[in-house]
Fold this protein.
Amino acid sequence: MSVSDEAFLLPLAGRHTGLIDYFRTRTTERLGNRSVPVRFLVTGFDDSGYRCEVGVANRSLWCAEEKPSSIFSFTKRRTEDTRTFNVAFVVPTGIGAEIGGHAGDSTPAARLLATCCDMLIIHPNVVNASDINEAPENSLYVEGSTITRLIMGVVGLQQVRTNRVLVVIDGSHNETFLNATINSVNAARSCYGLVCAGIWRMDSPFRMKSGISTGGRATGRVDSLESLVELLRNHRDEFDAVSLSSPISTPDGTVQQYFSRDGEMINPWGGVEALLTHTLGIILDLPAAHSPMMESHEIASVDLGVVDPRLAAESVSMTFVNCVLKGLQKSPRLITDQEAFVRPEVFTVSNLSCLVIPFGCLGLPTLAALEQGIRVIAVKENSNLMRNDLGQLPWKPGQYMVAANYLEAAGFLNALRAGLDPESVRRPLARTKVDRIGNR
């Protein structure tokens, strides 16, 4: 039973309206009943159509009596709660983002944006940096699919004091790396009080292999996932979040090539990790994150020299797991009962004020924000593989903004938080348009 990516071209929808329903219908037609979508994005669109890439999981991963929840499920919010100003910050995994495409190198941007809002919603790719996780204090660390479901209006978040974090490791791997991972967990327990629900050494673990999609994104394939899903389902009451550590198979020379190209190569591990955690998060409604184990002693002993600063956090780590443990320690609980959405302690899409994305990124978070009336700021300096002219989408006036960089994005957020038109603090100030309307 596997999780992998599929790519296809879809014709353009008239004026790009109703795209969530459109992509739901067309994706279902493509996949039929054999697979369940767990991740969706448009790598680019032009007159030829939308170039779509969809992460798909084998339907048999769900119990026979379960109806898989659709990633395209959408509930429009009735109101916006303006008592606080809250922002979702997304840097999709595996797209080669100039900022956030490496090892937690979008953390400074996250910390900057966090000063402009009451709560910042982030996902692992934003702040995970091997042994480092400097997520802002006023942030909620959630799995990528959870941000999507939050903005789609089908999931709420409840803050926790702490989580019982279950650690699952590949028990068939090299003993040196297993011991290093266990030592990292114990370091988390002794140094910052992690509540560990236990360590599972799986003798017959799932297998992960990295790859490149037709659009150039980092992706891959996860095989033999059924045993893990069944174990997690059967013991669901014993933990609140799950940290997964296992090797990711890559072609020979990948590690040396990645570190020697000064950040020009797409991180080869993140894409397949996203497929894994999206699948588990959707099936089990729980926080999940993955850290790759060293593949071999040969790779671990390679002298990488002085690497690009964006890669440095990965070059000095043995297990890459502490960023995951630190994030999962207080990752919020997922609330799927919509009757509970009215409770003040549950954070929902009604509490969300703005979405910040890299320039050109088109996935369900962007489409959902469009439909929910949420402001979207696209950051031009954060270049990536996505080739979408988001300005063509049917935004309301002032709903979509392009910031030159994250410094300017912070200015936009502060203006929006203060209730100001961002254009009012720039010059020249355009004249107000006056329309002459005749009496009838």
Remarks:
- The mean pLDDT is 95.
- Residues 3-61 form one domain.
- The CA atoms of residues 38 and 71 lie 6 Å apart.
- The chain has 13 helices and 19 strands.
